[in-house]
Amino acid sequence: MTTSAIDTKWMQRAIEIAQQGLGNVEPNPMVGCVIANQEQLLAEGYHEQFGQAHAEVNALASVAPDADLSQASLYVTLEPCCHQGKTPPCTTAIIDAGIKRVVVATTDPNGQVNGRGIELLKATGIEVLLGVCEPQANSLIAPYVNVTQNNRPWIIAKWAMTLDGKIATTSGSSQWISNAESRAVVHQLRGRMDAILIGHKTACCDNPHLTARPAETTAKRQAIRIVLAQTPALHLDSHLVCSANEIPVIVTAGPDADADHCQQLIDKGVEILAFDDNQRIIDGLLSELYQRQVTNLLVEGGSQLLGSLFDRQLIDEVRVFIAPSLIGGASAPTPLGGSGIEQMTNALKLNNLQFETLGDNTYISGRTERD
Questions:
Q1: What does the pLDDT read at residue 217?
Q2: pLDDT value of residue 82
Q3: Are 21 and 31 in contact (CB under 8 A)?
């Protein structure tokens, strides 16, 4: 079977509508579905909310009652599920609808699916075409695939810096490097995250809220707020601690943490994740977040935290805001501390690059390119 221009057209539409689920479907992947008869669109749908109907079911539900699907093709960005989860198998719905041709962009790496959905459709006589717009579909579900294969969240590193590559002055002043337009984009980004991570120094110096401000964005969720610390000393009247009973706050603690202060944080509603080895805190935290089905983790930390994640090759995506200002200072922090890379030929490259002008700021986003 070959891919036609019609197949490409409808799969691109399915990928487009799938993105409407961003921030609502995690830990599930974003999925879109289109039902068409040649050039005629019959129905479309996408996975709208975690725990609710999948894209194929939503598309089939919107088909006109008198529509004949015997000559129609169903286009779906991800292999239909074939197991009973929070919702019934999509393969059953497709078979019962009388669809005779299914076009799939990419297979589902979930161990309960992973080709079985396609084989089940074929076994019932349905023609299946696999791989249409596969690179775009794989990009769409990259965070989901990462969680499935690496057992950790998709990590998005975000920072604002001056034109000379500084994220703060020598005295630690950083508010505000970015402009109001850039900060509004950050609130939109926070509004689709499962969790936001900062370092202990950032929490103490900046006293952030780490919320998606409703006045600046239509936030889909308020993320869990996490502070990476070995010996937590957060002020009990800080914004994070004072709002912990409204929006969850997690603080890590190593073996030398002050037990009394940790208990005071707990009494204020903060959750303490204790570890007996400081060197294992990051790995232990990511493992815990995986168990809690956290898919997207936004890291707004400083040089030390971002550098540590970079050295461990844990950064999957970057969001950078560049301001046309210069502050200098040999000791002023840059975004990525840590050990870094010795040879320029080994520098980590980015793909899926996007550039946007936000007032006088430049906004660059991309995904890290690994072998």
A1: 52
A2: 81
A3: yes
Tokens, residue 284: 């232990």
Question: For residues 292 and 153, what is the distance between their CA atoms, to the nearest angstrom?
Answer: 10
Mean pLDDT of 86-93: 81
Is the pLDDT at 86 greater than 70? The verdict is no
- As annotated, the active-site residues are 56
The dihedral region occupied by 274, where left means phi > 0, alpha psi between -120 and 50, and beta the remainder, is beta
Per the structure block, which two tokens stand in for 283?
A: 């790995």
Contacts of 144 (CB under 8 A, 6+ apart): 26, 27, 28, 29, 30, 295
- Sheet containing 249-253: order of strands: 271-274, 249-253, 224-228, 195-199, 296-299, 154-162, 317-323, 361-369, 349-358
pLDDT at 70: 86
Q: Cβ(34)–Cβ(13) under 8 Å?
A: yes
Q: How far is CA 127 from CA 74, 106, 162, in A?
A: 10, 15, 55
Mean pLDDT, to the nearest integer, of 122-140? 94
- Tell me the pairing of strands 40-46 and 32-37: antiparallel
Q: Which residue matches tokens 């019962």?
A: 96
Q: Alpha-carbon distance 304 to 309, whole Å?
A: 9
Q: Name the nearest CA neighbour of 194 among 212, 209, 216.
A: 212
